[in-house]
Write the structure tokens for this entry.
Amino acid sequence: MINNDSIFLPEIAEVVSTRQLTEMEKYIELKLKETKEFNFNPGQFIQLSIFGIGEAPISISSSPFNKDTIGLCVRKAGDVTSAIHKLEAGSYIGIRGPLGNGFPIEEMKGKDLLFVAGGLGLAPLRSLINYVLERRDDFAKITILYGAKNPGEILFADELELWKKRKDIAIDITVDKPDDNWSSKSGVVTRLIPPLDMEPTNTYALVVGPPVMYKYVLLELQAKQISEDHIIMSLERRMKCGIGKCGHCQINGVYVCLDGPEFSYHTLKFLSEAI
Amino acid sequence: MNDILICKKDIGTFCSNLKEQFTVYGVKQKEEGFYVFDEIDEFSDPLKDYIPTILPPKKYLFPQQETLLRFDTQPLPDVKPVIESRKQVLFGVRPCDIHGISLLDKIFTADHDDKNYTRKREETVIIGMDCLEPCYEHALCASVGCLNVDDGYDIMMTDIGDYFYTSIKTSQGEEIVRKYSKYTGAGEEDRKRFLRLRNDREGKFENKIKTDISNLPLIFKNADNDPVWDELNDRCLGCGRCNIVCPTCYCFDVYDCMDLNMTSGERCREWDACTLKDFAVVSTGENFRSTRGQRLRHRFNRKFNYLMTRYNTSFCVGCGRCTRSCPVNIDVVETVNAVIKNNKTDDK
Amino acid sequence: MTKPRVAFFSFTSCEGCQLVVLTIEEQLLELVNLIDIVSFREAMSEKSEEYDIAFVEGSITRTSEIERIKKIRETAKVIIALGACATIGGVNCLKNQFEMDKVKDIVYGKMAGNYETIPARPIEAVIKVDYWIQGCPIDKDEFIEVTKAILLGKKPRIPDYPVCVECQMRENVCLFEKGMVCMGPVTRAGCKAICPTYNDGCVGCRGLIDDPNLSSHKNLLSEHGLTVDEAISQYMLFGGNSKEKYE
Ligand SMILES: Cc1cc2nc3c(=O)[nH]c(=O)nc-3n(C[C@H](O)[C@H](O)[C@H](O)COP(=O)(O)OP(=O)(O)OC[C@H]3O[C@@H](n4cnc5c(N)ncnc54)[C@H](O)[C@@H]3O)c2cc1C
Ligand code: SF4
Ligand code: SF4
Ligand code: SF4
Ligand code: SF4
Ligand code: SF4
Ligand code: FES
């Protein structure tokens, strides 16, 4: 929710639990002090405040069916994110949001879904995956592809195990740089796409990863003839306000914070600085 | 209220009276040929032939630095919005700047209402001063459709000799004039004189942009790879002055500033500029507009394509400030015309 | 929370930057609540070999100073270069344009044999530096901001944009528009454009921004009547250490 008195005013939230996922990523669970029910769409984000340090946009990683708490997966990247890593249960922080629009869930219903997550991209996709698993019958075939740099950077390993055990979804994981204990696939996540058996006209591809990944994923998806408006990508840009004022996230005519952060390739291909 | 006449010699008293209720900002000469909006205390003759001020009057609605929140982190975080405003009059705002403020109104109210801006705006009275001649060689107001204003002001004055021919747009404008100014009703002769002067000015303002501006979004859309941007890349210093002086540039940075007690502090915003190197850097280190040419392309597109498309109006209001202040003479008109020349789709 | 111990060190400089630190009276008292100043040549005589944060002023101009600064690096967890001499070499680097023996002769005359001098350099030419507070002298507000940022564990908000941004925000008349010259377009902001505000051209005491357009700026200087040599000497006043960038 955006506050009526000031669009910049965060609501205070308590950190109810934290979990170190990897060396660089920490999962924190928040509970808002005032708002009882936090409603959002998978793919939306919040602006998280550490007062005195600043604000950072972070995707919501928890399931939208959990309206009590908000789960975030945060990579240590700079000032705010490092301060988040120092938080313990019982700390208080500020939140503005949910911001942005999220994935076009209504359009996706009845379709095959192909999730392509690179690194931290699994964070926002996890929210969506949780949604579709809860509403499994609303969707057709589900395939999850996930690539991490190395085995130590794999996020939500326990959940991935659970997903692997399910018979009603397919999941494939790869690492760029395997170590001695790694027995599964290695190489970049794009390599998992060509072998897939897809029905291009009926598939939505949901892609989130680092900026460099998109170009290559796109080539593979286009080779599979998935239509441009069924390829949905979530973009990262510098954000200061999160609500279409500060101009930082602008790509050509669109504001990533306001009009995204998820866009179809059909929109993005006309934006010269997008990918 | 019908149009009125305010005698020039009464203007000083009018402004002084306004101070009873408002802080009054008007134009002062800073140095020979350079003007600024500043608080007016002694009102002698208001300036007449001034050219656009170094900074536009947007600084009174969207200041260079502004506190957004005050917070205390101990024992638990406590945060309060800070929204400052005061009753103020902007006196002698030119048509280009009135358009500029109208565009900022759009930006700061679109989708979410930015109270730090709108609260100031609500408390602001705008008294415009119309232009009958191009103010200086850099003016392109007529060319972008911003010479004529029919909205965005409370009172508009036009110099018709001994009098200012004065049109009142809002009830607040009317109230102020009634309360603080001497005036007489404008007669038929005065009205004719006024209209004649307005008509005559049309010929004096050349159309400098060599196409109908409604064509610009499409032209710019196809001009991403235009050599103009390479040439500007070599020349532009990336100094940000064109952004800072522009009445329609509104980008800002947000940062926290802790007090020395290290427990309380403020969140502030400050003008930012899309021509500066770090404007679009993200946490993974990518810079989505890493060259000066790309950044200027972005700035020009914001004025003539991106925002123009989004809001269906030119986001350059033609004040010529960017051209005047660019140390390496990057001229808005020349640049736009070069883009037009290289990218004309056909000869319509 | 134990207060971090802070030490100030001086190398070849006028010690003007430490003086700035001493002039921040009221805030200094509040600062002392947050930090323990254990060594401060300008302010107190006692010295301590135990410190966490070292502010270092001055450039390295003698071999003995190389050893000394390396020692400081071994002890301090955080090193902040304080002022132009330490951050960019500053005016000390002017002498680098000459042979060192000549410099000694000019400065010390007959006594030259008793002194030893090496080309002046910023401290980062010798050790790793964590933060830089630019300027000749430093800006006291920036000093406080940087100190606070370090205590908070965040990057100080040091501009990487030119002086022009601040100059224009203050609504100054640009000196180029008055027929003067200015290093503002290529110089790092943070001083609130103090020189142009008082009608003096910026001389670049805060060093170059990361990506200056020097060739265009040089053209601009020459359009304003400077010869190539004059333009270069503008850059060299404070930027002698990055000579190769100007030629
Ligand atoms: C919509 C969206 C969703 C996101 N979701 C997540 C998420 O779920 N989890 C997550 O961990 N992250 C997410 N991010 C990324 C996250 O927002 C950034 O990592 C975060 O903003 C970094 O803030 P910080 O204060 O920690 O880092 P900063 O201190 O701002 O710096 C981060 C890094 O950026 C670079 N940098 C910053 N400023 C500059 C500058 N002026 N010049 C050059 N380089 C600079 C530096 O290299 C620095 O190391 C998301 C971003 C967006 C836009
Ligand atoms: S782009 Fe230039 S001419 Fe147009 S409004 Fe901005 S400063 Fe004025
Ligand atoms: S640019 Fe046009 S509207 Fe603005 S002051 Fe000059 S003549 Fe008037
Ligand atoms: S004022 Fe001129 S040099 Fe400076 S950023 Fe703008 S176009 Fe570039
Ligand atoms: S006076 Fe110097 S710093 Fe100021 S705007 Fe002009 S060039 Fe830039
Ligand atoms: S204006 Fe230039 S010379 Fe003056 S203090 Fe600032 S950086 Fe130094
Ligand atoms: S983050 Fe400010 S406009 Fe999008």
